[in-house]
Amino acid sequence: MKIDEILNKSKMDRDDLIVILSAEDPSDIEIIRSQAENLLIKECGHSVYFRGLIEFSNFCKCDCLYCGIRKSNADVNRYQLDKSEVVSSAVWCAEHGYGSIVLQSGERNDKQFIEDVVELVKTIKAESRSDVMPEGLGITLCVGEQTSDTYKKFFDAGAHRYLLRIETSSEKLFSEIHPSSQSFANRVRCLEDLKKIGFQLGTGVMIGLPGQTVENLADDILFFRSVDADMIGMGPFIAHSKTPMSKTDQNKNEQDRIFNLSLRMIAATRLLLKDVNIAATTALQALKADGRERGLRFGANVIMPQLTPTNVRKDYLLYEGKPCLDEGADQCKNCLERRIESIGRKVAYYKWGDSVHYRKNGKLE
Ligand code: 5AD
Question: Does the pLDDT of residue 362 top 60, yes or no?
Answer without folding.
Answer: no
